Amino acid sequence: MFADPVPGLLARATSLLEAEFAALPSFEPAGDPAEMARILEITAKKLGDNYPYFHPLYAGQMLKPPHPLARAAYALAMTLNPNNHARDGGRASSQMEIEAVGHIAAIFGWEEFLGHLTSGGTFANLEALWVAGRVAAGRRGDFRVVGSAQAHYTHRRISAILQLPYTEIAADSYGRMSLEALEAELRKGDVGTVVATLGSTATGAVDPLDGILELRRRYGFRIHADAAYGGYFRLIPDALDEAARRAFVALPEADSIVIDPHKHGLQPYGCGCVLFRDPAVGRFYKHDSPYTYFTSSQLHLGEISLECSRAGASAVALWATHQLLPLTPGGEFAHGLACCHAAALELDRRLRRDGRFEALVAGGPELDIVVWKLPAPTAAEASARAQKLFAACAARGLHLALVQLPQSWFGLGRDTQRIGQQGLVTCLRSVLMKPEHEAWMDSMWERFTAASAEVLEGRD
User: Fold this and answer.
1) pLDDT band of 118, cuts 50, 70, 90
2) Phi first, then psi: what are they for 444, rounded to 5°?
């Protein structure tokens, strides 16, 4: 499978951590080691009922293995199980969180900001829209939230929870928000927040944030950038196509940004991050607790978070990863992102050269997600073939994903301004978010072409 360095990394570090508390009297934790070992062996067998998410031949969903150092640091921190709701529950891990979040904010050039880690992108987006709603409450009528039809479904759900009206904006045939459709909604005068997606779940599409900023200057509204998937690509803007590059360069002008370290940030689930450009929004979080805060007058992360208990181990793992792989342009971490992007471009080139498949975007993938349709007289037949090819690839150890997209996004004469969701067709999708995918492309392509011959030509 792979040589796992984590047990070796943990052994010495665990001894050092134990030495930090050597003055305490010893005690034996409850539990029979032999019985725990037996149950753990059963657990390992059960966990085998999974796709090999850690392997380069898995190129399906947005699942990236955490860095070995992140896994080791997380496990080390779980010796203490710190709670980053307050410094009393996680003194060291709270400081690590503050520093690690600062490293992320620096990607966007933010020095003055408010931010913290969350349990994932969903909760991070909830906090961003909650703050947006509180800001809008001070303005008459500016309550509506709008986002692309290709934005994550969680935004509609979150808006409903927050009792904020939500409207979908049509996407063009590249999966990006249509600026024309957005302006039509802005003219109505009641839009308080525009959600810009930088790296959509389905296709990795990047909304035209630079164009949205131009509209903000004319209409006035908050911009929330959901960069849960794509945010780290801010480190390699010059490797991207011009439209995506402009959007990532514009990211510092957003009012809030969400980024998920448990996606491209090499972290275990769950680790999201929300950032606000204006630290003054902290006033919306302010509260008093007679039992949680009692030993420190310093900033408590629980005072700037809607979540209460949060895993301090997530902060420890993220901080340690940043020490090894700093978030700097041209560094090793950025190089890994460039490899992912290069792998996607190469897969896209091979699909187009093959001639049997219909790629989604004329200029190639914007980030590291590739989508393509199979040839067939009807959308139903194309969808059925995609399902068969998906299964045939899996039988050869290559794991892809399926996605439903508008049939009108493919073929000639596409309307690139306003595309609805009618006439969906099931397509194949590959998320090439492991740097190793670039080196494994030949092996992946060999399996893919063999599966394609079986499904499309009837050859074994």
Assistant:
1) very high
2) -65, -45
Alpha helices in 240-373 (DSSP H): 242-249, 312-324, 332-354
Section 360-369 average pLDDT: 84
SS3 184: helix
Q: Kindly report, as residue ranges, where domains of CATH 3.40.640.10 are found in the chain.
A: 91-324
φ, ψ at 324 (rounded to 5°): -80, -40
CATH code for the structural domain at 91-324: 3.40.640.10
Hey, what CATH topology would domain 332-457 get?
Answer: Aspartate Aminotransferase, domain 1 (3.90.1150)
**Distance from the first to the final alpha carbon of the chain:** 27
Delimit the CATH 3.90.1150.10 region(s) of the chain. 332-457
Q: What letter represents residue 386's amino acid?
A: A
pTM value surpassing 0.85: yes
Q: Give the range among 52-61, 128-137, 339-348 with minimum mean pLDDT.
A: 128-137
Residue 284: which residues within 8 A CB-CB, separation 6 or more?
130, 131, 134
* Per-residue confidence (pLDDT) for residue 295, from 0 to 100: 41
Say which DSSP state 438 is in.
Answer: T
- Whole-angstrom distance, CA of residue 68 vs CA of residue 13: 14
Alpha-carbon distances of 343 from 264, 287, 367, 456, rounded to whole Å: 15, 48, 10, 24
Distance CA 14, CA 394 (A): 39
Q: Do residues 178 and 418 touch, judged by C-beta distance below 8 A?
A: yes
Determine the residue type at 102.
Answer: G
Phi-psi region of 355 (alpha: psi -120 to 50; beta: other; left: phi over 0): left
Give the pLDDT confidence score for residue 112 in this predicted structure: 93
Cα separation, 236 vs 337, in Å, equals: 8
Cα angle: 273, vertex 247, 408; to 5 degrees: 105
Task: Classify residue 276 by burial, with Cβ atoms within 10 Å: 0-12, 13-18, 19+.
Answer: buried
Summarised one tens digit per residue, pLDDT across range 14-30 is: 889 989 988 999 888 88
What's the CA gap between 73 and 130, in Å, rounded? 32
How far apart CA 392 and CA 395 sit, in angstroms, is 5
